[in-house]
């Protein structure tokens, strides 16, 4: 299968080449002034790649440029892959979305909700509702991330060793059991908070399927779709293709080298919430499968109605995250944005105040990567870079405006 490359003239699929060129012009300045080391962007419409651009270095200190086969840390762009895996099992009748997850993960049988008190001595009460499968898919389970630094429960996660990572030596099963012993932020289903829920979902995939998460991904998703470069770590043969990781300098916000060595080492914790490393080409194939309703090149992973169902806002009353979510970090904006089964979903572009379409869905990763799928416009968009955190620069809203202004048909 070919690398990710332009397949058609933009005008043939209703895009303006002149206007698409604004993407490279705009983000070139990010590289020129040091905000990013390098990046790659791709725009596909009606099943054909109409635009691919790249700029800068995959490793600025080594002087190696971004190439089309560069490997990127996907971080939370892993979450849609895990959600697809879970929905594949759902289609097979393995579980109902309303099933309590404790049927397969017993440690989640008695969730406790934080009420009051300091992190060292929290007061809790029994949850009014069990954690159900749909709660994991929608981040409404009451779980959290230690890096939020907002709520006492976040501090409890950090004290247990969970901030941007996990305690050394723990595998996915052990992490899930550890989270199960910590208080919830709220009763499952009552609010939205970005969390380790998708990691728990990955453990559910393991238990239900009888396969480790990497094996399920490899045999059921990656090999069927021809995603040849994606895994939970990169072996020695591919190490020179991995982009360097950067963090924003606290004062200048310029890209500063960070430790990205975890992507190069084999580890026990298979994070369905943020562990995959892969190429832009591989993620492009994944997005094309979604845009085509679960099928690509004769391989069907999901039914078309399942994909449409996943891309529907599942928050109660179809509320947006501004009204139903906690004001915590997330890889999306809040106004006009709902949440489906594994993706954010744009319900109201006017409320979101970013050019786009109702019904588009996608997600981003901690290193400022992003993707979205727009069924109405038959459009998919990818942007890869490696700058943490993703909230440093307004890359995503800028990219959306630059893409949609190039649609002329």
If you compute it from the alpha carbons, what radius of gyration comes out, rounded to the nearest whole angstrom? 20 Å
Largest sheet: 8 strands, antiparallel
The neighbouring-strand order within the major sheet is 3-2-1-16-15-14-13-12
The CATH topology of the largest domain comes to: Beta-lactamase
GO molecular function: hydrolase activity
InterPro entries: Beta-lactam-related, Beta-lactam/transpept-like, Diverse_Enzym_Activities
Domain Beta-lactamase-related: 25-403
Protein name: Serine hydrolase
Can you describe what's shown?
The protein is an alpha+beta fold and 409 residues long. Helices cover 28% and strands 17% of the residues. It has helices at 17-32, 79-91, 133-138, 152-159, 172-180, 197-209, 213-225, 280-291, 304-310, 321-324, 349-352, 395-404, and strands spanning 38-45, 48-59, 64-65, 71-73, 112-116, 123-126, 246-248, 255-257, 277-279, 295-296, 299-300, 337-339, 344-346, 361-364, 370-374, 379-384, 387-388. The protein folds into 2 domains: 10-77 and 217-404, Beta-lactamase (3-Layer(aba) Sandwich); 84-209, 3-Layer(aba) Sandwich (Beta-lactamase), CATH 3.40.710.10. The chain is built from 12 helices and 17 strands. It is globular.
Summarize the structure.
The protein is 28% helix and 17% strand.
How do the helices and strands line up, and which of them pair or pack?
Blueprint: H1 17-32, E1 38-45, E2 48-59, E3 64-65, E4 71-73, H2 79-91, E5 112-116, E6 123-126, H3 133-138, H4 152-159, H5 172-180, H6 197-209, H7 213-225, E7 246-248, E8 255-257, E9 277-279, H8 280-291, E10 295-296, E11 299-300, H9 304-310, H10 321-324, E12 337-339, E13 344-346, H11 349-352, E14 361-364, E15 370-374, E16 379-384, E17 387-388, H12 395-404
Parallel strand pairs: 7-17
Antiparallel strand pairs: 1-2, 1-16, 2-3, 4-9, 5-6, 7-8, 10-11, 12-13, 13-14, 14-15, 15-16
Helix pairs in contact: 2-6
